[in-house]
Design a protein that fits this description.
Elements: H1 6-12, E1 14-17, E2 23-27, E3 30-32, H2 35-49, E4 53-65, E5 68-69, E6 75-76, E7 79-89, E8 95-99, H3 106-117, E9 122-124
Parallel strand pairs: 8-9
Antiparallel strand pairs: 1-2, 2-3, 4-7, 5-6, 7-8
Length: 125
């Protein structure tokens, strides 16, 4: 993995701390939730440039369950998981779902399991 120094990270534009105490990074108008996510983005952009991956997207929402109204009339919001990165691997032709993890919350673990049931495998880096 590519590592950048704190000095360079500051020059790139740290935005501040997130709720999990990560340093947010802003780069070319894109805000990343952590330095680790930003560094992985640089790796993926390099792979994209070399033709190893294509159709690279960030923060892709995946609906686990649609919004609904129950029989008592209570409205429930949709359950959404946002993948940090989604791209197609040129060698396999398969779409890959990536989550740059620092802390695995219980909510994340449940969403990952529900997506795995639908054959959407979240890869953690």
């Amino acid at each position: 993995m590519v590592r950048i120094s704190n000095k360079i990270a500051q020059e790139l534009g740290f935005v501040g701390k997130s709720k999990y105490n990560n340093n947010k990074v802003k780069y070319q108008g894109i805000t990343f939730d952590s330095k680790k996510e930003f560094e992985y983005y640089l790796i993926l952009k390099d792979k994209e440039k070399r033709g190893l991956v294509f159709n690279l997207k960030r923060q892709v929402p995946l609906e686990i369950q649609p919004a609904f109204t129950d029989k008592t009339g209570v409205k429930h919001r949709a359950i959404i998981y946002k993948a940090d990165f989604v791209y197609t691997d040129r060698l396999t032709g398969k779409e890959r779902y990536i989550d740059v993890k620092g802390f695995r919350t219980e909510g994340y673990k449940l969403k990952k399991k529900l997506l795995a049931y639908r054959n959407i495998i979240i890869e953690e880096v």
